[in-house]
């Protein structure tokens, strides 16, 4: 029986894109300096440009929106894969401590290299996600090490181990960041808060390669992800090389998480919520879930950032906090629904 | 086992000695070392002109006493919670009790900026009660929500939520700096008047804990057994929660959220004294105080001459222990 939801992929995507565009529009036009619709269009299309508008749009607001969207998309997709591989609807890169692991690695990188090695600028920015990847990978290894029992992953224990590891990495990060010199510390503190307000095009370019290379791999493997849902034994008997595919999938999703942590700090709950919404909208087929979840993630972070920067203006609230205030009730709701 | 009958007595007898030793170490060492004679002089012939005397009496001594007290409060809260819920992961910081406190203290600092120390303590206690009510309420509503691992997940998530809300509120009212004291435990800035004010509450809480310890033992056998033995379980439960709320509330008001003490120490105490909470509770209190005082001294030396946040030090011991507990105790079993 064909899944009735599966055919809705395109229309659903169109709606989410519209929501995303709406958020982007609001975010682009409002702020300390309001733009009208006409002004925005003129600036974007380069029709008799005004210098001030150019500055506001191209140097401040646009990179921030693009970065939010990229980070959201990366987290949404990573969350889908992690939930799929662990077969655990409560998994999320933030809750599982992958963000924290990547964060620690990035802070260590800032601490050891930023000052001494003269690779400020491009090199440093491009290398940061690599370190994040190593850290995220460490976190996943630890999680597996501690939550595996008799070769089985217990879903709830996985979450709890993740929480423990996140708090451990968090403490280590705090410790390292306090040992830094004041300049680096300032930078690390802003970054750790999980905010996007110091976005610039450099960060966008850092994100891009990861987002161009990894999602196609995930998409290509989405079939195995479907089969893993049937249980590992069935997947193996259907000819999936479960262990290998799992490793590829996990590694790619950690890569996505690492890249987004490196540019925006830790933003939790996107990877939790987006896949659930996507599953509701387009059914159980990961070929559909994956892109839709990415889009939902992008829309969430763009809106979260918009709300964070306007609701308490002129004070800014980190997008991560906004999303977690929405995310927690949702998490509890999921727990409520879950059977024992 | 034999050693479980003798050991608690030994621990309780040795405790004052150890406490005094730690107190001395804590007063003498820090970013400025103070000699033994100066400490004695500061105690017995205090000279307000002498800077060293001031350091001892205003900064170091309250800090050391505070660490001993707070450690004891948190450990006893943890022991009570673990006994009552039969949940080996129960503790004030994991179950969202501390975060509830911080949340309400934040609100109080925003809306009642002129509130004095005593109302701060009261507000903090109400906050603990709210945090506990939310977490246990949800745990009770959710099918299987009182299973140890699930309640722990709920507690931490609600805790994150409450601290997210506090952060949002604080940054909206531009109070982040004042409030951040409460997130990052502030043993180093202990307020002597606050300690004095908290003494009556502390006595009430500790007294209740000791009075209840017998009932906790019965409770830890399970509700059915407790009811069968003639215990009024509902009443006892309320009293235990009240005690937890008082003790946690006071310690958050004094120094903010300090994690893991309430989790680790009761387990160690149980290892020494078996399953009898009449022994576990006093031993937890003693060990908790000593442990936190020790961590506090360690915090000054890890990154000498700078202070390391106490949360980092307790996490250093706490996280591995937490992982060990999950690994060995598994998901479903009760304590």
Automatic annotation (TrEMBL), chain A:
For this record, the Gene Ontology CC terms, alphabetical, are: plasma membrane
Question: Which InterPro entries does this UniProt record tie to the protein?
Answer: ABC_BtuC-like, ABC_transptr_permease_BtuC
- List GO molecular-function terms, semicolon-separated: transmembrane transporter activity
Q: Where's it found, cell-wise?
A: Cell membrane
Its chief place of residence is membrane
Q: Please name the GO terms of the biological process aspect recorded for this protein, alphabetically.
A: siderophore-iron import into cell
One family from Pfam that matches here is FecCD
Query: What are the UniProt keywords, alphabetically?
Result: Cell membrane, Membrane, Transmembrane, Transmembrane helix, Transport
Mode of membrane association: Multi-pass membrane protein
Record family assignment? Belongs to the binding-protein-dependent transport system permease family. FecCD subfamily.
Record protein name field: Iron ABC transporter permease
- Species of origin: Brevibacillus invocatus
TrEMBL record, chain B:
Tell me where in or outside the cell this protein is found.
Cell membrane
* TM region positions: 7-29, 64-81, 93-112, 118-142, 149-173, 193-213, 234-252, 280-302, 308-326
User: What topology does the record note for this protein and the membrane?
Assistant: Multi-pass membrane protein
- Keywords, ordered alphabetically: Cell membrane, Membrane, Transmembrane, Transmembrane helix, Transport
Gene3D superfamilies to which the protein is assigned, alphabetical:
ABC transporter involved in vitamin B12 uptake, BtuC
**Record-level Gene Ontology MF annotations:** transmembrane transporter activity
Q: Which GO BP terms, alphabetically?
A: siderophore-iron import into cell
Any one GO CC term of the record: plasma membrane
Q: Entry's InterPro entries?
A: ABC_BtuC-like (IPR037294), ABC_transptr_permease_BtuC (IPR000522)
Q: What is the similarity comment for this entry?
A: Belongs to the binding-protein-dependent transport system permease family. FecCD subfamily.
* Annotated protein name in UniProt: Iron ABC transporter permease
- What is the scientific name of the source organism? Brevibacillus invocatus
């Amino acid at each position: 029986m064909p899944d009735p939801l599966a055919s809705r992929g395109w229309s659903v995507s169109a709606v989410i894109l519209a929501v995303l565009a709406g958020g982007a529009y609001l975010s682009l036009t409002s702020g300390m300096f309001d733009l009208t619709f006409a002004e925005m269009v003129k600036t974007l299309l380069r029709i008799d440009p005004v210098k001030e508008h150019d500055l506001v749009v191209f140097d401040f607001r646009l990179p921030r929106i693009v970065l939010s969207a990229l980070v959201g998309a990366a987290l949404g997709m990573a969350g889908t894969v992690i939930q799929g591989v662990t077969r655990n609807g409560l998994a999320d890169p933030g809750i599982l401590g992958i963000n924290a692991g990547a964060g620690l690695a990035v802070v260590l990188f800032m601490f050891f290299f930023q000052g001494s090695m003269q690779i400020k600028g491009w090199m440093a920015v491009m290398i940061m996600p690599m370190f994040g990847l190593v850290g995220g990978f460490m976190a996943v290894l630890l999680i597996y090490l501690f939550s595996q029992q008799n070769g089985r992953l217990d879903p709830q224990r996985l979450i709890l181990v993740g929480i423990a590891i996140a708090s451990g990495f968090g403490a280590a990060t705090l410790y390292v960041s306090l040992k830094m010199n004041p300049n680096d510390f300032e930078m690390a503190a802003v970054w750790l808060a999980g905010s996007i307000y110091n976005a610039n095009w450099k960060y966008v370019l850092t994100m891009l390669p990861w987002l161009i290379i990894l999602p196609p791999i995930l998409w290509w493997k989405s079939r195995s992800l479907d089969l893993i849902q049937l249980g590992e034994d069935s997947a193996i008997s259907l000819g999936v090389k479960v262990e290998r595919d799992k490793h590829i999938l996990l590694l790619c999703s950690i890569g996505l998480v690492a890249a987004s942590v490196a540019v925006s700090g830790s933003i939790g709950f996107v990877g939790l919520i987006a896949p659930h919404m996507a599953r509701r909208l387009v059914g159980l087929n990961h070929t559909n879930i994956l892109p839709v979840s990415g889009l939902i993630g992008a829309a969430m972070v763009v809106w979260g950032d918009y709300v964070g920067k306007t609701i308490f203006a002129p004070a800014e609230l980190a997008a991560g906090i906004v999303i977690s205030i929405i995310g927690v009730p949702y998490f509890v709701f999921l727990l409520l629904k879950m059977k024992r | 086992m034999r050693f479980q009958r003798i050991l608690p007595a030994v621990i309780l007898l040795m405790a004052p000695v150890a406490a005094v030793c730690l107190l001395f170490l804590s007063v003498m060492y820090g970013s400025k070392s103070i000699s033994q004679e100066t400490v004695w002089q500061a105690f017995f012939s205090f000279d307000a002109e002498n800077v060293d005397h001031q350091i001892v009496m205003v900064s170091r001594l309250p800090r050391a006493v505070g660490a001993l007290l707070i450690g004891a409060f948190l450990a006893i809260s943890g022991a009570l919670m673990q006994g009552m819920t039969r949940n080996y992961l129960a503790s004030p910081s994991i179950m969202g009790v501390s975060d509830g406190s911080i949340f309400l203290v934040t609100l109080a600092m925003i809306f009642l900026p002129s509130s004095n120390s005593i109302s701060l303590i009261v507000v903090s206690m109400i906050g603990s009660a709210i945090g506990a009510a939310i977490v246990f309420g949800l745990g009770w509503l959710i099918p299987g929500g009182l299973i140890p691992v699930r309640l722990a997940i709920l507690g931490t998530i609600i805790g994150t939520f409450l601290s997210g809300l506090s952060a949002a509120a604080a940054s909206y009212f531009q109070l982040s700096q004042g409030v951040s004291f409460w997130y990052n435990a502030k043993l180093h800035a202990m307020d002597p008047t606050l300690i004095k004010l908290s003494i009556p509450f502390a006595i009430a809480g500790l007294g209740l804990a000791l009075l209840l310890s017998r009932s906790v033992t019965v409770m830890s056998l399970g509700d059915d057994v407790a009811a069968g033995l003639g215990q009024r379980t509902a009443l006892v439960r309320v009293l235990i929660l009240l005690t937890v709320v008082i003790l946690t509330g006071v310690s958050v008001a004094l120094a903010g959220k300090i994690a893991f003490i309430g989790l680790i120490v009761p387990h160690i105490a149980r290892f020494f004294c078996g399953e009898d909470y009449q022994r576990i509770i006093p031993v937890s209190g003693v060990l908790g105080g000593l442990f936190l005082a020790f961590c506090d001294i360690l915090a000054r030396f890890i990154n000498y001459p700078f202070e390391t946040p106490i949360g980092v030090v307790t996490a250093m011991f706490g996280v591995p222990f937490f992982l060990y507990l999950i690994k060995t105790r598994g998901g479903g079993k009760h304590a």
